[in-house]
Amino acid sequence: MRFVIQRVSSASVKVEEFVVAEIETGLLILIGIEETDTTEDINWLVKKTCQLRIFNDSEGVMNLDVQEIGGKMIVVSQFTLHASTKKGNRPSYIRAARPETAIPLYEQLVDEFKKVLGQKKVGTGIFGAHMEVSLVNDGPVTIILDSKARDF
Fold first, then answer.
1. What is the pLDDT of residues 45-85, one digit of tens each?
2. For residue 152, what pLDDT is reported?
3. Distance, CA of 24 to CA of 9 (rounded, Å)
């Protein structure tokens, strides 16, 4: 499972003409799910993400996590995070999980974030929908986490 985490001062997700999620200060997380991902990947990534000290303290040092600043989160599934561009010019998405695998894992992931942060602090996109994601990346701060490339 792969995350692209962006510290934002604002972010929103629109499907058709409707805003389905909107936050001020917090994290926008794009999530790529692979066929081989498990609950273990979810648990590691949720814990790691919620404890990332990437928000400024009173001294201007990145020393606080999303919970400490009362931040919110938007979680968006994005299968293209597992694009392979080794051959040719058209990306291959063979490593991305099919919907029958990805949807339950995505829902489990969102539920875990809601347990940690609270129901009202986690917004989502709509799985499989064409979405317009807008954000103001604060910093900019962008972190990539991959549960298959973690160091223990």
1. 999 999 999 999 999 999 999 999 999 999 999 998 988 88
2. 46
3. 5
pLDDT tens per residue across span 10-46 = 999 999 999 999 999 999 999 999 999 999 999 999 9
- The structural domains of the chain, ordered by start, are 2-146 (3.50.80.10)
2-15/18-23 β-pairing: antiparallel
Q: Is 80 a catalytic residue?
A: yes
Residue 49: both structure tokens together: 């993400």
Q: Which of 36, 80, 85, 142 is catalytic?
A: 80
**DSSP result, 46-89:** HHHHHH---EE-TTS-EEE-TTTTT-EEEEEE-GGGG-B-SSSS
Strand partners, 30: 4, 76
For residue 108, give the 3-state DSSP assignment: helix
DSSP assigned state of 118: -
Has this prediction a pTM greater than 0.90? Answer: yes
Alpha carbon distance 86, 45 (integer Å)? 27
Cis status, amide bond into 104, omega within 30 of 0: no
